[in-house]
Amino acid sequence: MKNVCFFGLFFIAVVASAQQRIMMNQVGFYPSSEKIAVVTGVVDTVDFYVISVDHKDTVFSGKPGEQKQSNNSSLVTRIADFKERKKKGSYVLAVPGVGESYPFKIDNNIYHDVAAASLKAFYFQRMSMPIDAQYAGKWARAEGHPDSTVMIHSSAATAKKPAGTILSSPGGWYDAGDYNKYIVNSGITMGTLLSAYEDFAPYFEKLTVNIPESNDKVPDLLNEIVYNLRWMLTMQDADDGGVYHKCTNAAFDKMIMPDKAKEVRYVVAKSTAATLDFAAVTAQAARVLKMFPKQYPGLGDSCLKASVYAWQWALQHPAVVYAQEELNKKFVPKISTGAYGDSHFEDEWFWAASELYTSTGDEQYYQTVAERLNDHMSLPSWSHVQLLGYYTLIRHQKQLLQHTAAIDTMKASVVAFADGYLAHIDENAFETVIGQSQKDFIWGSNAVAANQSILLINAWLITADKKYLSNAYSNLDYILGRNATGYCFVTGFGTKSTMYPHHRLSIADGIEEPIPGLLAGGPNPGRQDGCVYAFTEPETAYTDSDCAYASNEIAINWNAPLVYLAAAMEALQGKF
Question: Which residue numbers are catalytic?
């Protein structure tokens, strides 16, 4: 169809308001995938149009669906479905009386850049090395936090290592918007990234993102993982196998560049959660890295030894809680950085046992798995990691044939859990998996969306049923703009994306654009930061301000599932 003459008239009048009313994936779509835009507010029109980005041609027309009232805000919506438009190109979606969308593309490999940037974001988070212009462009910076001189905090003191003892703990990633390193949060981050490699190795073997190690014949995903892994190994006490909870300042650094941060660094008390997360990661890494013996000679073996040693410490210390406020009553200096406190360890025991059993075949670890098979299953987060163990055991079922029946039961549980997320999508005003419950909108809600999709992808890996992939795709749509805020939550992508994340590196560098590839936390009606929010309903409680750490911080455990999700969509394009 050629362009209809009235478009030019109404575009000029309403384009500004349209940018707040047509919510859709701002990056684009695969030719064969679902294609949905959400028009918010009362819409009187009976048609919508897909138009070439130069406005010369109308290539598709359709009728929006029935009006829906959102259960998560006062918004009403209508769905514009244009999945039948499969031809590659650049387009906008127009709604008479409302306006037009931001531009988007239909193409193959449409999320390659998202997958690459979300992985490259980990390079920008590296500490203890300069970030060079050759790899970072205008975001190059000086080395921060060498961590070659780290003190034993009084909470971690032993007879052999009294308070003030100097350790070296270099490397690793800055955890989030702050400049500290936390074993617990590294745990789920590393587990997710290692699982991404195990599930989609052929894709990652071809994905290069221009980091210093890109020419070493190791996938860049694993190069990045190893950079953090080597730091994690420094956090194990060689005297007993226990793992320090974090490497940190006593208090958060100011909003300064990392090379300007000079506060004393500490390793603080060991904990059961940190030690078991460490055991799980090092066991998983051991079997992956053994595939690269020339590039990483002995590293896989060292990881497995460290994992077993950590497990032994946990057996002797099965319930050591990191309770920061209680520790601050006893030890100095007081520590006020992220606590990542966890008092329930059933899931950490299950995950560590699953990884150790898969990597060693030693039945002593499976005994713990068997004891925990009936424990409550929940979506992965830093404090709920049991499902990571399920994924691993299912992934390696062919090598664990002696427990086929039990793993078949796990598979059924994963599929049933995934089915629970599919039951009421049509009732959701945005027709995404996320948002069927207001409980989805928590601190880090965008990671909830990504982890829901990983669950659905694992259900597809089990069943090959396309419904799981198409619905997993809906949450990537959500992250990239099909949401009640209208933001693309990945920095550097889309037309209206997060610009002012709570992220010291992006705030203090004097560059207008934030570091690209970072996933903002997302809507969080808790608003624990006390900042001003223009909207406060569950699905709209987001503000693009560096003040808003409760909704606009970034974190490695949020970027990791984005890497998995975007890469999985790329690896599986054409299958849904």
Answer: 178, 502, 544, 553
